[in-house]
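Bench log, entry 3. Co-assembly request; chain sequences pasted below exactly as received.
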Amino acid sequence: MVSLKSLHTFGLDVSARSILELREPEDFRRFLSLEEPKILLGSGSDVLFTGDFAGTVGLVRSQGLEITEDPKAWHVHAAAGENWHETVLRLEKQGIPGLENLALIPGTCGAAPVQNIGAYGCELADFCEYVEICGAGGGIRRIPRDSCGFGYRTSNFKTKWAGSLIITGIGLKLPRRWVPRLDYGPLRELKGRQDLTSRMILEEVVSVRRSKIPDPTVLGNAGSFFQNPCVPAALHGELLRRHPGMPAYPQKDGSFKLAAGWLIEHAGLSGRTLGGAQIYPRQALILVNTGSATPGDVVALAREVIHQVFDTFGVRLVPEVRILGADGEIPATDL
Ligand code: EPU
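Structure output for the full assembly:
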C-alpha cells in the first residue's frame, strides 16, 4: 500500500494499492486501460477519502503552457498537471489579465473544469475555450466549452463522463479588452479607481482568501466542503421571514442560492469539533483536519452538519468535495 497523506490536501492517513504518475499521452492510455478500481488526482484539493483506496491512483503530472494571440484575444493551452494558481500568476506577469478573480484556488488546471472552479463572481466556464481529453479508445481530442455541461460547481466531467476519460489539458481564451469584475463583496471597494489594474484585483483576492480560507499546507482542508444550496422562492421567502439577515442570491430560474456557510453558522455549528475534525470557525463552509482527524471523523462531522442544517432550516446540504470510497467515487448525495 502507498500512503496518500501528502497527495491530498485534507492530509488524512489513507493509502492506495498503487499510484501511477501520468505525464505523457501513453501514460494516460495505460491508466485508462487498467481493469481495477482507479481514480485520478491532480493536487487532491477537492476530495475526501473515506478510507483506503483498493485500486490505483493516477497522479496527473503533465506540464506545459502555450500562448498564442490574435487581434482580439490570447489563447492559452495549459497541460492538465500545471498548477492553477501558478498559471494565473504566470499569465499576469506576462501582461495577460482576466483570471485574477480566480487567483489562489488550489488545484491543477486539469481539475479546474471538473467542478467548474469559481470565486468572486467568475468561474472557469467564463474563460474556457475547450477541454482536451483522452477518451476510452486512447484518442486525444478537444471538447468545445459549450459541450462541457458547465454549471455551478459542476460539469459533464463530474457527472455523466466521470471515469470514462482523462482531461489532458485546457484551452483558455482571455480577451485583450480587459473587463474588471468587481461585483462581489470586498472587490466592490475597488470600483471607480482610475488606476485599477488586474494586479490590484489579484492581490485583493489573495488577501481576502488568505483571511478566510485556511492554508492547506498548515491546516488540512479541501476548501468549501458543501455546495451553496438553491431553494425554491417559497422556501426562501419563509426563511427570510424567520431570519431577515440571511444572505441569498436570486437565480435566473426563479430559485434562490443560499450561503451554506451562513446556514451552518446559524445552526450553531461554527467551531464544532468531532475527533480531529473541525468546522473552521472563520468560514463554516470549510471542514478542517486539526492534525489527527480520521476519515470517519470528517464523515461523521459532515453528516452532523447535514442533519442539523436540515432540522434547523429544512435545507439539505450536498457536499461539494468529491467523496472517494474503497472502489471509487461515491455520489455526494449518498454521504
Ligand atoms: N457566511 C457566514 N458564515 C460563515 C461563512 C459565510 O455568515 O461561516 C456568509 C458570508 O458572510 C456571506 C455568505 O455567507 O454573506 C457567503 O460567504 P463567502 O463570500 O465566504 O462565500 P461562500 O459562498 O461561503 C463561495 C465559494 C468559495 C469562494 C467564495 C468566494 C462555494 C461552495 N464556495 O463560498 O469557493 O471562494 O464563494 O467567491 O461556492 C471552494 O470552492 O473551495 C471555495 C472556497
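The pocket of EPU is lined by residues 119-120, 153, 185, 212-213, 223-224, 227-228, 247, 259, 261-262, 265, 270, 283-285, 320 (CB under 6 Å). The chain is about 20% helix and 25% strand.
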